[in-house]
Design brief:
heterotrimer, A mainly alpha, B alpha/beta, C alpha+beta, A: MetI-like fold, two-stranded antiparallel ribbon, 2 strands, C: alpha+beta, Rossmann fold, OB fold (Dihydrolipoamide Acetyltransferase, E2P), 6-stranded mixed sheet, 9 helices, about 35% strand
Chain lengths: ~300, ~350, ~375
């Protein structure tokens, strides 16, 4: 029964393969600009950096291959401490952004309606209409010793003299949270939006209080958004340069400032590249760990968010 | 295949054409410090020569980085400090020698011109000629901090949280001098130099509690001093003169160990395309009246002969207050930095920045 | 018998709009009570007030004899099966069912035992570890009910839970729901816009319209003895005429329709001569005969309406097949197609005669809004 059918089947397969080839070609054509962009803008510079980082300076304009830039970085406790400090502060700032952003996102997604919703969303977006530099200067005007907040506190009689609120880790945190809030709120709103109100009501109806409903229903539902937002915000914090440099105190060294000073102040591109690579590997590692711990995949979170 | 080749050739040709187009209007691409090329001077230069000037504001480190990135291309004239030419030139070959015959030497103060020639010479070739000079020392609000005379005074406990510095080599070296060392004399001896800057670094770290914030741009510092948040700072004299014009209580104070003197130069980037325009600019801005306009704008002193007559009286008064002849005599001029020292300094400064 | 649920003069207003307007009801223990009404009639607001999601503007709700004023939904002895079930997709079946028990701080082993028992009762004994999206529509339905029943609520509220199911499954679930209710013996309050769901399952049905209860009664009451024209029109099929009372003797009326038809009807509420009336008759109350001239037409008596007409079309739908008959006066009337006519080759256009008893012809004062 089957035998006579086979030639017909294979005959039909040939044009189908041709069609597939044509589709593949058109896919390659469509994909080519993107691949080129990725290669030129991301891959090639990274590889270049990597090779630079393996160059050891022997004398003026003489270089050799070797790991000295890395051993120097890890041999100098100042640099390692700065890296650890930057990672820890970035994680803290990410967590704080989540804690502050979650209620905002919940309000936008579930409670606010119509105009208020748009307004709230816009107000999250508003800071991004000006450059980061202007935003940071705004905070400097508010937090400095002769600034708005200090005067307000004095005016209210809460403090005796002027207080310096700038140049410390808290100021850096405030700046980081402010700068990255939107990137937390947007993925959260989009996942919370898809949460059926009935699930929340059912959570209450079956005996849960607000905390239980949040913990067992809302947060598990929002997990992809939480992870996506946290990854984006963490990367932004880790890679931020302006905010920690301008708001930070004399002790608030950020790792990116180290990279900057290696590249720009020291003209030591080799060691700057090594610093950059260490930062890249560190952040990738932490994101990977976070994804593993939360049982999410990159495509399932960033892709969705 | 031939079609593809044709397309590529055509593309290349069009790219080269577009690249060649901007040559029609002559421009000078100037890499310099803020206030070194005021609008009015640029306009006069254009009127006189028909050349447009494109200014990119920068500082020593940034100039070196920018030129290193391109191998010395992208700019026709740069203005690094004379002490920052030798090292980077040895490491990166970012400048080309100057043709001194194209420079009108009679416009320059001879001692400054000679000093810069000597300090920027490599293998008998000169890489920079003096333009503006100034010093690095202290800016003090005399009413709020009357007794600050030295770098060590910045670290007095009564000024806790009230002083500022720029965490760069002038602060480190200024501290070394204040501690009685002579780092310049140790430039040739790396081990000795390391010991000196380690000592100065430790002193800066110990002084950290007094520092409100390390400044990075002069605008930061201006704001902190104007608002009274900072009463004394390690700073350039030009910053002091600028503030003096607003508030006579504030002025530059040369540290008792001597102010650190620098000379900013004109230098030709290795792959500059318009050397003629660069020489024209040098000879133009060194004319006394023009040089005085730049002095007024920058607050630094010019190597132009006779320019001081045209400088505004206010600036001259501030200068005379800060720089009586015996102070000028004590200025420690930055010698050319040998390659490798900046890296050592960098590590010490990193430790100061991170340490607590 | 004690009432598990009682509402007293409940009112819910949103600004000028009154969604629920003075509703009172009493649901005896263990009964199946339905609230039937078109969408927008206020039944959802009523249910959400009982569940505690919204506060009544006025009135009182008692569950198990206890006032629910100020009691939040998670403390009410009433649980709800949501329209789209609202099973928690982030938990498996067993965790869904155990959710409420965990809230009561019950020991893990006890929770597992109870969840296992209820899963067995709903024939899903092995499905505890399954994800929600691995269940069929009917299984989800049962899990949603089990999730509430395991808490042994005084009242189970069901918000049109069959609406999302396909027709076949819906028919099946109607029977199954009724069985489950028998099995658990819990008081069910069921809201729906589907009269057949309400009629099949309920002990008592309240017909709701525009924020009020039109009538509360057994399904038979509603069907055969509608109290208002709305109920007569909404529950079951019926043909409706508008007309005027021309003669009245007790509840016996004669009504002239606007098309000029003279009807004998029975007044449900007293109607005076000259009053405008709405007259309803059900399709199955209409008898269709072939007017072939051979069978002797029964004389029109005082309690039967007889009209001649022509068969315009036959709408075949098995046991629900209809004959559409055009009367001489122009009215188009649907009647249940009698079995004896089903097989015959009754041609369209054939002359027929229809009869319906005056007792089955119900007259209401006109003006009541009928659907």
């Amino acid at each position: 029964m089957n035998a006579p059918l086979n030639p017909a089947a294979s005959g039909a397969a040939a044009p189908r393969e041709e069609g597939a080839a044509a589709r593949r070609l058109s896919f390659i054509l469509v994909f080519a600009p993107f691949a080129l962009w990725i290669a030129l803008v991301i891959l090639v510079p990274q590889l270049n950096l990597f090779f630079l980082s393996l160059r050891e300076k022997v004398g003026p304009q003489v270089y050799a291959l070797g790991p000295r830039n890395y051993t120097e970085l890890f041999g100098e406790s100042v640099y390692v401490l700065t890296l650890v400090r930057t990672v820890v502060m970035s994680l803290l700032a990410t967590f704080a952004t989540l804690i502050i952003g979650f209620p905002i996102a919940y309000y936008i997604a579930k409670i606010a309606r119509g105009r208020a919703r748009t307004m709230l969303f816009m107000s999250c977006l508003l800071p991004f209409w000006v450059s980061e530099l202007v935003r940071v200067f705004g905070w400097m005007l508010i937090l400095r010793e002769t600034g708005l907040l200090s005067r307000l506190l004095q005016g209210l009689g809460l403090v005796d003299g002027p207080v310096e609120l700038l140049y410390n880790d808290v100021a850096v945190m405030v700046g980081l949270i402010y700068t990255s809030m939107l990137f937390m709120v947007v993925p959260l709103v989009s996942t919370l939006d898809s949460l059926d109100d009935a699930l929340v009501e059912a959570g209450y109806d079956l005996g849960g209080n607000g905390f239980v409903v949040l913990w067992e229903i809302v947060i598990p539902h929002a997990k992809p958004g939480i992870v996506a937002g946290a990854i984006i915000v963490f990367m932004l914090n880790l890679g931020n340069y302006l905010t920690p440099t301008l708001l930070g105190g004399k002790n608030s060294q950020w790792f990116t400032a180290q990279i900057y000073s290696q590249f720009i102040t020291r003209f030591n591109w080799e060691s700057g590249s090594a610093f950059g690579f260490v930062l890249l590997v560190t952040s990738s590692l932490i994101v990977w760990l976070a994804l593993r711990a939360s049982g999410q995949t990159l495509s399932g979170t960033i892709g969705k968010g | 295949m031939r079609d593809v080749k044709g397309i590529i050739v055509g593309l290349l040709a069009s790219v080269m054409l577009t690249a060649a187009v901007p040559a029609r209007a002559e421009t000078l691409r100037l890499l310099t410090w803020g206030d070194y090329a005021p609008e009015a001077v640029i306009k006069k230069f254009k009127d006189a020569t028909g050349i447009d000037v494109e200014v990119t504001i920068s500082n020593n480190e940034d100039m070196i980085s920018k030129l290193r990135a391109t191998g010395g291309a992208g700019f026709d004239l740069a203005q690094p400090s004379q002490d920052r030419i030798l090292g980077p030139q040895t490491d990166f070959s970012i400048y080309k020698p100057m043709d001194l015959s194209k420079i009108k030497a009679e416009l320059f103060l001879p001692e400054l011109l000679d000093a810069s020639k000597k300090n920027t010479a490599i293998d008998g070739k000169v890489y920079g000629v003096a333009h503006l000079w100034g010093t690095s020392g202290l800016v003090v609000d005399a009413r709020k901090a009357p007794d600050i005379k030295s770098f060590l005074d910045l670290c007095k406990s009564e000024y806790k949280g009230r002083v500022s510095m720029r965490l760069k080599r002038p602060a480190l070296l200024g501290m070394a001098f204040a501690l009685g060392e002579d780092p310049f004399a140790a430039y040739g001896d790396k081990a000795k130099y390391q010991a000196i800057i380690d000592k100065a670094g430790a002193a800066l770290a110990a002084c950290k509690a007094n520092v409100k914030a390390y400044w990075s741009g002069s605008d930061d510092l201006l704001n902190m001093i104007r608002s009274g948040e900072v009463v004394a700072a390690e700073a350039w004299d030009s910053t002091g003169f600028k503030l003096n014009a607003e508030n006579p209580d504030i002025n530059f104070v040369a540290p008792s160990a001597g102010a650190l003197g620098w000379i900013d130069t004109f230098a030709l980037p290795a792959k500059g395309k318009n050397d003629d325009a660069a020489y024209k600019w040098i000879n133009f801005v060194m004319q006394p009246e023009i040089a005085a306009m730049i002095v007024d704008s920058a607050g630094s002193f010019s190597a132009s002969k006779g320019s001081d007559q045209f400088v505004s009286p206010k600036l001259r008064a501030a200068f005379q207050q800060a720089f009586p002849p015996e102070v000028i005599a004590k200025i420690k001029w930055f010698p050319a930095v040998p390659a490798g020292l900046e890296e050592m300094e960098g590590k010490v400064l990193d430790k100061v920045a991170a340490g607590n | 018998m004690a009432n598990d649920l009682e509402c007293r003069a409940l009112v819910k207003s949103y600004g000028a709009f009154t969604a629920v307007n003075g509703v009172s009801l009493a649901v005896p223990k263990g009964s199946f009570f339905s609230i039937l009404g078109p969408s927008g009639c206020g039944k959802t607001s009523l249910m959400r007030m009982i569940a505690g999601f919204i506060e009544p503007t006025a009135g009182e709700i008692l569950i198990g004899g206890r006032s629910m004023r100020g009691v939040p939904p998670n403390r009410r002895p009433a649980n709800m099966v949501f329209q789209h079930l609202a099973l928690f997709p982030m938990m498996n079946v067993a965790d869904n069912i155990g959710y409420g028990l965990r809230r009561r701080g019950m020991a893990k082993a006890e929770i597992a035992r109870r969840v296992g028992a209820v899963l067995e009762r709903i024939d899903l004994a092995d499905s505890g570890p399954k994800r929600i999206d691995q269940l069929s529509g009917g299984q989800k339905q049962r899990v949603a009910i089990a999730r509430c029943m395991v808490l042994e609520p005084t009242v189970l509220l069901l918000d049109e839970p069959l609406g999302a199911l396909d027709l076949k499954l819906r028919e099946h679930m109607k029977v199954e729901l009724k069985q489950l209710q028998h099995q658990f013996g819990t008081t069910f309050v069921y809201i729906t816009h589907d009269q057949s769901e309400a009629l099949v399952m309920s002990d008592q049905v309240a017909v709701m319209n525009a924020g009020r209860f039109e009538q509360v009664g057994t399904p038979e009451d509603l069907y055969y003895r509608p109290a208002t024209p709305f109920v007569a029109g909404f529950v079951g099929d019926s043909h409706r005429w508008g007309g005027r009372v021309t003669a009245q003797a007790g509840s016996d009326l004669r009504v002239a329709t606007s098309a000029g038809l003279a009807l004998r009807a029975t007044a449900v509420v007293p109607l005076a001569e000259g009053a405008a009336a709405s007259v309803f008759v059900r399709p199955e109350a209409i008898e269709v005969r072939v007017a072939d001239g051979r069978s002797d037409p029964a004389p029109a008596s005082a309690d039967v309406n007889v009209f001649a007409g022509r068969l315009e079309s036959l709408l075949f739908n098995g046991a629900n097949s209809r004959a559409m008959i055009r009367l001489e006066r122009g009215d188009l009337i649907g009647a249940v197609l009698p079995q004896n006519l089903l097989g015959t080759r009754l041609g369209e256009g054939a002359a027929v005669e229809i009869r319906f008893a005056a007792a089955a012809t119900l007259a209401f004062p006109a003006g009541g809004d009928a659907p």
